[in-house]
Amino acid sequence: MRLKTLELNGFKSFAQKTVLEFDNPIVSIVGPNGSGKSNVVEAIRYVLGEQSIKSMRGKSGLDLIFKGSKSLPKGSKASVSIYFNNSDKVFKLSNNDGEDVNLNYDTISISREVFSDGLNKYILNGSEVRLKDIHNLLASVNIGSSGHHIISQGEADRILNANAQDRREMVEDALGLKIYQYKIKDSTRKLERTEANMKEVTLLRRENAPHLNFLKKQVEKFEKAKDMQIELSTLYREYLKRESIYIDKEKESLSLERKKITDELKNVVSKISHTEDDNSAKGNKKIEELKSVEQTMNSVRAAKGEMERKLGRIEGMIEAKQNRVKISSGRCPTCGKELGEVSQEQVESRQNNEKELEELKKSQAEIMIEMQRKGVEEKNLFQSIETLKQAINKEMEALRDLEKEKFKFKVREQELASALEMVAIKESNINNRTENFENEIKEGVALIGHEILSYKNHQIGGEVDAHVQEDQKRKIERLKIKLEDTGLGNGAEITKEFKEVSDRDGFLAKEMEDLTKSIEALQKLIADLKEKIDIEFKEGVKKINVEFQEFFSLMFGGGTGSLAIVLENKKKRSIPEELEGVIETTKEDEEIVFEKGIEINVSLPHKKVKELHALSGGERSLTSIALLFAMSQVNPPPFLVLDETDAALDEANSRKYGDMLEKLSKHSQLIVVTHNRETMSRAGVLYGVTVGSNGASKLLSVKFDEAAAIAK
After folding, report:
1. Beta-strand relationship, 2-9 and 18-21
2. Maximum CA extent, the chain
3. Residues 349, 350, 354, 355, CA torsion sign
4. Given pLDDT bands bounded at 50, 70 and 90, which one contains residue 167?
5. pLDDT tens digit string along 106-116?
6. Which string of DSSP letters, residue by residue, matches 589-652?
7. In terms of DSSP bridges, do strands 560-573 and 590-603 run parallel, antiparallel, or are they unpaired?
8. Domains of the chain
9. How confident is residue 592, by pLDDT bands cut at 50, 70 and 90?
């Protein structure tokens, strides 16, 4: 990789497009003071991402744009482009995810533009990018942001004036460790973001936990309800099938019985009409009386049967209500109400259930008393019927044969009519039972769905036992009460919400797991990078010391110069930044942090001077040049810019300086701004910068003698 060209357009004094080519190892730029030659150096600083306008002798971005002259208007923007040969594909760049960006170009171009409103743009091979991307790209080829590869007049001894920590950063930059610092910085930012995300996810899970627990308990409750639904479905299937069989068989039986009685009654009525006689009036009175008593008997029996069924239902309701009293007494408070409010509800519910239970028991007792009375009444009526029949039989014996036959038919007519009335009562009862059966199906559909209708396809064996049916009915009623208490109506919505919240919590748990892994990976990466920096830093300082000693000895004709790694104490406040200045701090609020720094040790030949502050200006200049050159030798940048760093050198030292330039040029391209003839003599290409008649800087390619004249 090497520097190819530099292009300036509207930058400071270069009003028009100006191109510098760097085909030789050493390129020298010369020109009188005020010609704009240092603007070339500042253009390089600028395009490589320099943020300090002050270091480019300006107050704002507007100062970097050509201000105009008598013959040229002021510019609206300034741009600088730098081109590198990338045939060996050494430039590297990664995105925010750490993935490599494709830089498969033979030439890498970096451009920076500034507009009159202060807006800056960075362009990489035609695409706009961020300053961060420019820094990362340049760091991959050892062009760091500290500017160790650009040494301007008056800044040569900046490394000598810097504190130990700043020197360490300059050395790290020169050693190409800045790329690791960028990675640490990016990883630290990612770590902070990841930790923030971790806190946010943890907070979300903590906020969701109570609702999730509530939904979980509700779902568990509904799961139990489902078990009850299954049990109820099984009971219903058996009960409804047997009930439907009983109803159908009973209806068929009653239909046949009605037809049989009706047919016989027609026959009897017909025979009576043929045997009608006035003499029969005597026995008709008792027959009518028998008819009336038998009707009363049928009514009593029907009422008694209805009471028996009503008593059975009430007994089932009493058992169900007793279960409900137990449930309301032992019910747990309901995952949104105050304890006192819940306790009051329980007391009211228990009192209501107990009151209803007492009323049911009272009704049970009343029905039993009434049934006993009906039993006595039935017994008396039965005795009356038998007495009337005996009386009628005696009268029939006294009548003529025809009269006897007529009476016989009359009695049978009455028996058949009574039987027909009983059939009607039974039909009414079976119709009521059918209605109850249909209502039971409707309630079952509401509780367990249309699958209840599967009873139609259910196969059973044996006869229908009324007692078994009543027992099954009571069990069904108890289960219905329990299911109603679960509030199964919104079970599907609760289950759906639980799944959504549970899935969300699972997603957050997985995200926490991923974030934890990311945090661990980032912490390891940061630790590895710091270790790598530490190792390479120590090794780099050793290599710099070898070169520093050589250059120092060359510049001073002996003596020693070296760098030493030192640990410096730095007090750091342990209180949050937002509280600094608000609360009074004490020594306990501060912690001691040890930071590595760089110390420069020198010993001049034939002198006792060993402290940097005791060196003369010329000695400081030579020392800094020797150190900077040594740093550039260990991990050579693609190019070095030396802006009049030889200004303070005498003729002898200028030759030594020139020798060092030639040594440096074997590893890095050199761009040298100088007035020194010796330095000019080492350059392969000389550019002269002058001010044209239009008031703008212009560039000339000149020979050595011309350059010497221009430099004056």
Report:
1. antiparallel
2. 178
3. negative
4. confident
5. 999 999 999 98
6. GEEEEEEEEEEEEEE-TTS---SGGGS-HHHHHHHHHHHHHHHHHHS--SEEEEESTTTT--HH
7. antiparallel
8. 1-143+638-712 (3.40.50.300), 207-486 (no CATH)
9. low
